[in-house]
Amino acid sequence: ARIREVEFAKSSPRARDCPRDDRPEFAVIGRSNVGKSSLINALVRKKDVALTSKKPGKTQLINHFLINKSWYIVDLPGYGFANAPESARMDWSSFTKGYFLNRNTLVGVLLLVDASVPPQQIDLDCANWLGRNNIGLTFVFTKCDKVKSAKGRRPDENIKHFQDLISKYYKDPPPWIMTSSVTGLGRDELLLHMSQLRNY
Ligand code: GDP
């Protein structure tokens, strides 16, 4: 499950521009500011690998990173905005949906969920949309090192609450992993999980 080599492969403006080969891939998604860039950088142990998609005003792109020349981590545009009023609706552009519905080599989606805040409707909506479309999902809780959020709840309390809400939709809830890009918590577990899904 080790990452020996990572190379930036491609930025694609549309789903149909993505690399055309048979290598399996994992898509990483989540709300803006969830800690997606930090997590990808921590996974591949490189600084700033995942910075491309962050530049403000830049066209939103699908970024493929090739791992060990054999599989991809795919950085997709974030959804929602940290300070915007809570929206109950998914605001993905059609190209993000197009990617999910048409990408045959997609092994699974890592849906990043900020464990330092209470459950957010837009994350639940996203999980439900993926579930309805039969897309394999793993919840990756980020920022689990945070002791206390502004609203006074601990990450483990927020995670429990989130799982209670999810269990109303799923008979068989998706797997989940607790992570921190600060302490490295969950990194090995996540890499092992992805290698198991690849070989499944
Ligand atoms: P992105 O917009 O999803 O790519 O989020 P970033 O990776 O840029 O992180 C957003 C903010 O959260 C930054 O201020 C990070 O320093 C912080 N952050 C990201 N991951 C963690 C984490 O695991 N723990 C803590 N405490 N902060 C984090």
From TrEMBL:
The chain holds residues 116 to 315 of 321 of the full protein. Keywords: GTP-binding, Magnesium, Metal-binding, Nucleotide-binding. One of its GO terms (molecular function) is metal ion binding. It comes from Ananas comosus. The keyword Transmembrane helix does not apply. This is GTP-binding protein At2g22870. The lineage of its organism: Eukaryota, Viridiplantae, Streptophyta, Embryophyta, Tracheophyta. Its cofactor is Mg(2+). Residues 22-200 form the EngB-type G domain. Belongs to the TRAFAC class TrmE-Era-EngA-EngB-Septin-like GTPase superfamily. EngB GTPase family.
